[in-house]
Amino acid sequence: MVQRKIIHIDMDAFYASVEQRDFPEFRGKPLAVGGSPDGRGVVATASYEARKFGVRSAMSSRQALQLCPDLLFTYPRFDVYKEVSAHVRSIFKRYTDFIEPLSLDEAYLDVTEDKLQIGSAIDIAKQIKEAIKTELNLTASAGVSVNKFVAKIASDMNKPDGLTFVGPSKIVDFLEKLPIEKFFGVGKVTAKKMNSLGIFRGKDLKTFSESSLMRHFGKSGKFYFQIVRGIDDRTVQPNRVSKSIGAEDTFSTDLNDPEEMKLELYKLCEKVEKRLDAKQKFGRTLTLKIKFSDFQSITRSKTVPNPVQHAKALYEIIEELFNAVDLMDKKVRLLGVTSSNFYYTEEKTEGIQLKLF
Q1: Which one, of 144, 232, 141, lies nearest residue 185 by Cα?
Q2: What's the whole-number mean pLDDT along residues 244-268?
Q3: Peptide bond into 69 cis (omega under 30)
Q4: What are the counts of helices (DSSP H) followed by strands (DSSP E) for the chain?
Q5: Does residue 343 carry a pLDDT above 60?
Q6: 204 pLDDT band (50/70/90 cuts)?
Q7: Which domains are assigned to the chain?
Q8: Contact indicator for 9, 109 with CB cutoff of 8 Å
Q9: What residues contact residue 57 under an 8 Å CB cut-off, 6+ apart?
Q10: In what order do the strands lie in the sheet with 31-33?
Q11: Which is catalytic among the residues 19, 49, 100, 106?
Q12: Given a cut of 70, is residue 258 above it in pLDDT?
């Protein structure tokens, strides 16, 4: 069987880098895209100068300012980001048609058989990075391997402007040494649970049987068992059709403050917006999911006549659904937001809730 050549490209601090490119006053300064200097809202992306202070995406502006009092804020310009993303996509297409976008700023590429017959995935990744730098004055990081899972992890290893290759003979050693929180698909809550079981690196994870991992982590246990061994047969899917797009978060500490829950819901709406935008989808139906500390789950949905995509419009509907829920003084373990019932872009776009600021 032919071994795949997979590249994962991830733009570096995408929104913030575009703003620093276009506005000299932001260059070399700690910058947050999204949020505001009065402490309201949440950060969409932080520049690397801001990240040195611990500022990160989905963080409240108030917390970001506490970490970095000199932090600058600017409004997102999604029309510009989409334009840049389209240019980046056109660069990818010079080499392959097997492109699976994950968002505006990252994508998988299968270059097993590349259009220019270059042959080397490493050389293709270098050329793509150079084209992005030359044509757009931006940097991207690349991970190169034989499957999607390892390529995605590799792209994050040497940011910014990095290129990391993990060949077939190095995959096992690479994953065994990898801290468990670096595994794609292992969030903070799961990492904490793994730590409690004595799992801190990939080599620790490998000591658990598949049945044991499934007992501790449900269906995800099978995934963890396979990926720590470098087993990932997922193909790059350029024409994957999504019936719904959503985001959810399980909290390390159960929430009991409705205002804090609303902040988390807004963060989730921003994540959903980013994913909708990348897929060029507009949903008519919004669904709120709440899981309580006693593991009881409820969902509430609303369908609107005009499809929505922007986070503020999503949040208005989700907040309405949330306000109608009787929390019964229970603590909340998980919140989720999902968009479905899509209005596709080939239809006329009259009446769609577009970007508003």
Answers
A1: 232
A2: 90
A3: no
A4: 13, 12
A5: no
A6: very high
A7: 1-165 (3.30.70.270), 171-227 (1.10.150.20), 244-344 (3.30.1490.100)
A8: yes
A9: 43, 44, 45, 46
A10: 45-46, 31-33, 72-74
A11: 106
A12: yes
In this structure, are strands 72-74 and 6-11 parallel, antiparallel, or unpaired?
unpaired
Q: pLDDT at position 338, please?
A: 94
106 is catalytic: yes
Q: Summarize the confidence of residues 310-317 as an average pLDDT.
A: 90
Contact call for residues 139 and 160 (beta carbons, < 8 A)? yes
Burial class (CB in 10 A: 0-12, 13-18, 19+), 10: buried
Pairwise CA distance, residues 10 & 31, whole Å? 19
Q: How far is CA 176 from CA 38, 183, 204, 218, 312, in A?
A: 45, 11, 8, 22, 42
Secondary structure class of 308 (helix, strand, coil): strand
Which of residues 294 and 168 earns the better pLDDT score?
A: 168
Residue 97 assigned to a binding site: no
Largest CA distance in the chain: 63
pTM of the model: 0.69
Retrieve residue 129's tokens. Answer: 């990075």
Give me 38's structure tokens: 């009065």
Is the per-residue pLDDT at 346 higher than 60? no
**Spatial CA neighbour of 247 closest among 342, 349, 124, 338:** 338
User: Alpha-carbon distance 114 to 95, whole Å?
Assistant: 5
The response to whether 105 counts as a known ligand-binding position is: yes
